[in-house]
Each structure stands twice: as C-alpha cells, then as structure tokens.
Automatic annotation (TrEMBL):
Origin species: Luteibacter yeojuensis
Signal sequence extent: 1-20
Alphabetically ordered keywords of this record: Signal
Name of this protein: Uncharacterized protein
Protein origin, superkingdom: Bacteria
C-alpha cells in the first residue's frame, strides 16, 4: 500500500516538474526597439523585438513591457505571449510587436522589457 501511495505521488508531481524545466533566465530578448509612427490622431507605437528560447526544452515565455516617465516611474505596463499557446523549440525564436497594446502619452520616456513567466504548453 505504501508503494502505491508513493507511485501516485510521483505520477501526480510529474507534470509539475515538467513546468519547472525552463525559467525566465532561459530566454533572451534581442533587438528590442520602440518607435513612434505619426498618423491621424495620436502617434502609434511599434515595440518590436525577438524572443529566443535558450532552454534545452520547448517552452513559451510571457514578456512584460514597462513604459516609464523621466523619473523612472512605471506609467504603463502590458504583457503578452509572443508565441501564443505554442512552445518555442530550443535555439529558435519568435518576433513580437506589442506596440498596439499601448496608448501614447507624452510622459513616456523609457521602456524596459523582461520575461515575466514561462510555461510549457
């Protein structure tokens, strides 16, 4: 009976260990750049970059972009999954542009991007 209980615990924990195989540090963001494009009305953002999986296993990552004012205070923050609900193969990358999620504000002076979550689908 004790062996059966141990086996059940191991099988139940297996999916959790698969989730923990890759972490935020296993992804890199290359070439992130913010550009403003004038059009009718307020300017539009382009916030493009490239998300690279440096983990040994397929996984997906969520990124967060923070827009900051001149003092460094975050005034807008948005998150997105560049690969959607698909895993990125090891050594592969996906392009992203989360600019459409932001509304222009003249106070926005600086932008940072980080990997905020990792998941294997």
């Amino acid at each position: 009976m004790k062996k059966l209980a141990i086996a059940i615990v191991l099988f139940a924990a297996a999916p959790l260990s698969a989730q923990a195989a890759c972490a935020a540090k296993d992804f890199a963001i290359d070439g992130f750049a913010v550009k403003l494009t004038q059009g009718s009305g307020l300017p539009r953002f382009s916030m493009k970059g490239n998300l690279v999986n440096k983990c040994a296993e397929p996984a997906a990552a969520q990124i967060r972009i923070d827009a900051k004012d001149a003092s460094g205070k975050v005034i807008a923050s948005k998150q997105g999954w560049p690969a959607g609900t698909s895993n990125i193969e090891p050594g592969k990358s996906v392009d992203f542009d989360l600019g459409r999620l932001f509304r222009y504000s003249a106070d926005m002076q600086d932008y940072t991007v980080v990997v905020s979550d990792v998941k294997a689908w």
